[in-house]
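User: Teach me something about this protein's shape.
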Amino acid sequence: MPLSNLRGMMIVVMVSLICVSRTTIREQVLLNTSRRIQQTAFVKPSEQDLFEGALEGMTAKLRSKYGDQYSAFENAAQQQKNRDNIDNRLVGLGVSLVPLGDSDGVQLFPLPDSPALKAGVQYGDVLLKIEGDDVTALSPSEVSKKLEGQVDTNVTLLVRRMNEDYDTDNETGEEAEVIVTRARMHLPSVLGDRLHRDGSRCYTLETASDIGYLSVNKTFSDSTPSEIAAALDELNKSQDVRGVILDLRGNPGGYLTAAVGVCGLFLNEGTIVTTKQRHYSDTISAKGTAIWDKPVVVLIDSMSASAAEIVAACLQDHGIAVVVGTRSYGKGTVQEMVKLPLNMGSIRLTKSEYFRPSEKNINRGNKHDDDEWGVMPNDGYTLELSERQAAVTVRVRNLRAIIPGEELARQIDRLVAQVKAGETETPDDAKKPFVLEGTAPYYDPQLDLAVKCLSNDH
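Assistant: First, the predicted structure itself:
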């Protein structure tokens, strides 16, 4: 054998030995098992399926054995969808669906600056057909699915315009065909009390113009701090505004950096949050950027989680805000997105727990209801709602976020009439009319309590 060939073989052997030495026996077994499954299994799986299955199994073990409920593998499609959810981005028409009731279809309410509004969809249009298919008997979720599609694709809608009296039962109204081009949109994460026809939002309560109201919709995204700052700047221009309500009910969380940015708008100095990793901790402090020095009330409920809890806990611990509502969700962990090479997805990995300024741990984990976790409302400001009352409150709040002008009052009146006409089961199996709580036009007892708190100049 030529000497050059022998040297080449020796180099290959040495490189192989080095590669093997850098992998554990378990890693080698995992690779060999994957290949064996591909070669032998009756139903031949793809290499990608086995790759994703292995990663899903690893993160599943973190959940089942170590109680980590938030680590997970996400493929590229899931990663994009979750990122869009956190960043409040979507591909679609930009239209909200409001059910007419009794399976009579849905009304359309285009969002400000949306493809639907630009194409000519009007507030309150009743949707009749999508691409020629009758959809009047479909639920809002079924209609929403039929409206889905890729960016820059068109969808043809047949709608019925409302008459001057806004009679949704009128089946003789003018029909119109509208062609809408789907687009990628960024939705605001901060909403006010109501929407003007020009798309701007009013950040004071309809029933109390001296009280600001900011609802952080869906998640804490990168734009949330700047959106809240802009709203607070607007409120600061009015000397009549004496306090603000920050509504975090139903907020599932979002970016830690966004929560810290929001806290910095209210807190000039002191600890915002401390994160504790396996080997060290990091305390994040305010940087003297506060722009609001008037009273604050934070509304929370059992679905307020993560970033929402960081904000509520920080403002409560520093005596900046009174917290009203019910105990929060109790998600006190931080996840890091570990991107995999070649666009193969990512691992959402829990890397730390966070602690509020009082050094209490928010995370619920396996704790019991009697244990200390989450964020509790201030003494005297806990108010539980029945499941049905909470549903009505959310419906009204959602309507106020998407329907402008006179249409809003009409829609709320319709909803209230439907609720009052319904019946509810009682423990003795008797039926009685459901009693709607809270004052008009909000029908929100927790909001009433927040207003009362600010009225008392807490």
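Now, about its shape. The chain has four domains: 3-65, 89-186, 190-355, 387-455. Residues 3-65 form one domain. If you'd like, I can walk through any region in more detail.
User: That's plenty for now, thanks!
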